[in-house]
Amino acid sequence: MSYVEVPGAKVPIRMWADPASVEDVAMQQLRNVSTLPWIKGLAVMPDVHFGKGATVGSVIAMHGAVCPAAVGVDIGCGMSAVKTSLTANDLPGDLSRLRSKIEQAIPVGRGMHDTTVDPGKIHGFPTTGWDDFWSRFDGIAEAVKFRQERATKQMGTLGSGNHFIEFCLDEAGSVWLMLHSGSRNIGKELADFHIGQAQKLPHNQGLVDRDLAVFVADTPQMAAYRNDLFWAQEYAKYNRSIMMGLFQDVVRKEFKKARVTFEPVISCHHNYVSEERYDGMDLLVTRKGAIRAGSGEFGIIPGSMGTGSYIVKGLGNAKSFNSASHGAGRRMSRNAAKRRFSTQDLEEQTRGVECRKDSGVVDEIPAAYKPIEQVIDQQRDLVEVVAKLKQLVCVKG
């Protein structure tokens, strides 16, 4: 489909989704965002659903302002994937040992490493800039500096919720490694701090939703947020890089005879801010549950823990601010999923996948998400499909 234009207050709302299929509270959030004085465009992805302040699955382009709640609390959350030389023929019938080895190598949930991971010991990890990155920790908000030890030990860890590590097959029988995570607790604490700061500012007192509080250009508060935001986005990228390196090491050891090789890693944020230029204007583009899909740029659009995921290539559609969806998108809340589904339902919907099937992950059941094929079909003018993946192993926190 192409987009549908819905009237907004200051800008039209361009939707790659049927407005009738979007919950009323999410539509109201979109209208609220369109009232912001600084907004220059709003694009809505097919995985759109209710979020904090702004919907998940929206691309908010503003001039001289940024909304920290619209970025979200998992700053820099995103995906990484890599194609391997392994094929279906190399795999054993039982993958439970592989899952166990992944869980031993990469802490999940609230877990962290016992000591800081040395990136120099991770095969192929790009250590350029690593020391500079950590030296900049001294420049982030004073309120979160006491979390430095936790931040160093959580580097290279998964977290919980919808974060995952997967061992997948594409339709040609090639094995891919894929993972989804962000900036862990340090990103959340930075986000919470700055959201609180923004809500106190005088220019935000008359907003329709206090969660839409913004920082504006040329103020110390904006400078401080941008500093911490971009640092946290870098943390998230390094976090995924280290996990992918640890994941690759596990796969090398488990499939020694195959002498596994890896293609270049594809990586993309989907909760972040980017400085981009459209129609001759410099804009701050917030993708909240959306990936960049510039012409020829690779991206990753996952489904759920029992369905397929897609490697895509962007078509560079400026109407969407060169964006595409970040996943299937939830169609029911976590609490609604827990009320509606049982562990037996989870077992049935994840049949054939080596993964957790207990009550702790029922809220991640595939039926709680929109059908990924439909979401992909709704954005054919935003991306082209490069590969479709189906997970064999899924690790969750």
Automatic annotation (TrEMBL):
Listed EC numbers: 6.5.1.8
Cofactor(s) this protein cannot do without: Mn(2+)
Keywords associated with the record: GTP-binding, Ligase, Manganese, Metal-binding, Nucleotide-binding, RNA repair
UniProt catalytic activity: a 3'-end 3'-phospho-ribonucleotide-RNA + a 5'-end dephospho-ribonucleoside-RNA + GTP = a ribonucleotidyl-ribonucleotide-RNA + GMP + diphosphate
Enzyme class name: ligase
Superkingdom of this protein's organism: Bacteria
Descriptive protein name: 3'-phosphate/5'-hydroxy nucleic acid ligase
